[in-house]
């Protein structure tokens, strides 16, 4: 068995409040509860502390750690995984690539044959490659990654619960990056169809950072119909569940290439909130039509408008979907995920005082 040594968590942390940063904030909290000894966290986002100093600190932590949790973005994986593998030749280390989501298998398929073969060889030198969906893990195994396993991305349940009130009725909420691939314009078109042609009294409340490429078009629409669309700014990660639980319905018609399971869907599930989303990537692996979510195909504005209308007009369907979503997302609670992580790491010979 490996001797007790230093454990480190390497990856980007918030801010900015994007998927990788928020995920790693939760992982940091989870490992903090799990371990009796302090562990080192290295933020892979350069924050102006001097590039040589930044790189030297990262390399030093990787060198002195013999148990390393990597939770990286695309570019971090390309650089740090080979570095860890090189160091492991000189000094014994246990390394796990933690909870990758979205389309990582497709990213690897996009490499040329030589680069992909080398990269898969490096991944097979790790203790494990943990993906958040069975579709992703199956895709990784098909290209030769032997140690791929399913572990969910953890979230913290704030305890806020959805309840339909007169104040929340007919108010739809979107929480994500405001960018075309998240389906924001399809959603706005669906609201225009419902409010303009069908004379529904609906409102779309939008939270999230706005990509510069679509800022002009987005605000043009908001200014044209200020009673249909309300931009509410950016919500802090620890407040997402509380904020969204005040609305009638969460909508996320995403077709973002790298989409895994957006954290806002998990937190909506914790709250027992009805959701409408696109049947995209692995989303229908978790949620089922009219049982834990309402589904539409990507880019189908008419279908999106119809599904929103169905859920908003039926209190019983909204409540049923919300209860189903709560059951689906129960395994994503931080304590349950970290227990799965503990079992997995111990099976790989990791050593922690707290175990």
From TrEMBL:
PANTHER family: GLYCOSYLTRANSFERASE WBBK-RELATED (PTHR46401). The keyword Transferase applies. The keyword Calcium does not apply. One of its GO terms (molecular function) is glycosyltransferase activity. It comes from Breznakibacter xylanolyticus. This is Glycosyl transferase family 1. GO terms for biological process: lipopolysaccharide biosynthetic process. InterPro entries: Glyco_trans_1 (IPR001296). Residues 166-327 form the Glycosyl transferase family domain. Keywords: Transferase.
């Amino acid at each position: 068995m490996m001797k007790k040594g230093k454990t480190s968590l390497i990856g980007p942390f918030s801010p900015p409040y994007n998927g990788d940063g928020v995920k790693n904030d939760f992982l940091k909290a989870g490992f903090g509860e799990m371990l009796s000894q302090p562990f080192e966290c290295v933020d892979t986002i350069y924050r102006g502390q001097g590039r040589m100093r930044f790189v030297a600190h990262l390399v030093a932590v990787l060198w002195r750690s013999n148990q390393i949790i990597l939770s990286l973005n695309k570019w971090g994986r390309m650089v740090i995984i080979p570095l860890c593998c090189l160091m492991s030749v000189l000094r014994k280390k246990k390394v796990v690539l933690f909870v990758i989501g979205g389309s990582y298998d497709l990213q690897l398929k996009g490499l040329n044959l030589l680069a992909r073969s080398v990269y898969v060889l490096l991944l097979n030198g790790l203790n494990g490659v943990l993906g958040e969906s069975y579709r992703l893990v199956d895709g990784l195994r098909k290209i030769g990654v032997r140690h791929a396993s399913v572990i969910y991305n953890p979230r913290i349940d704030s305890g806020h619960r959805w309840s339909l009130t007169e104040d929340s009725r007919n108010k739809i909420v979107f929480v994500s990056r405001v960018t075309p691939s998240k389906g924001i314009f399809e959603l706005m078109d669906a609201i225009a169809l419902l409010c303009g042609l069908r004379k529904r009294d609906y409102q779309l409340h939008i939270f999230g950072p706005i990509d510069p490429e679509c800022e002009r078009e987005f605000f043009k629409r908001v200014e044209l119909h200020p009673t249909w669309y309300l931009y509410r700014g950016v919500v802090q990660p620890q407040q997402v569940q509380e904020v969204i639980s005040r609305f009638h319905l969460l909508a996320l018609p995403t077709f973002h290439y790298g989409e895994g399971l957006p954290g806002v869907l998990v937190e909506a599930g914790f709250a027992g909130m009805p959701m409408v989303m696109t049947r995209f990537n692995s989303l229908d692996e978790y949620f089922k039509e009219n049982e834990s979510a309402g589904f539409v195909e990507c880019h189908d504005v008419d279908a999106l408008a119809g599904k929103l209308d169905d859920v908003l007009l039926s209190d019983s369907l909204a409540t049923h979907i919300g209860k189903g979503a709560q059951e689906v997302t129960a395994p994503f609670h931080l304590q349950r995920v970290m227990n799965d992580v503990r079992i997995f790491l111990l099976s790989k010979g990791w050593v922690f005082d707290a175990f």
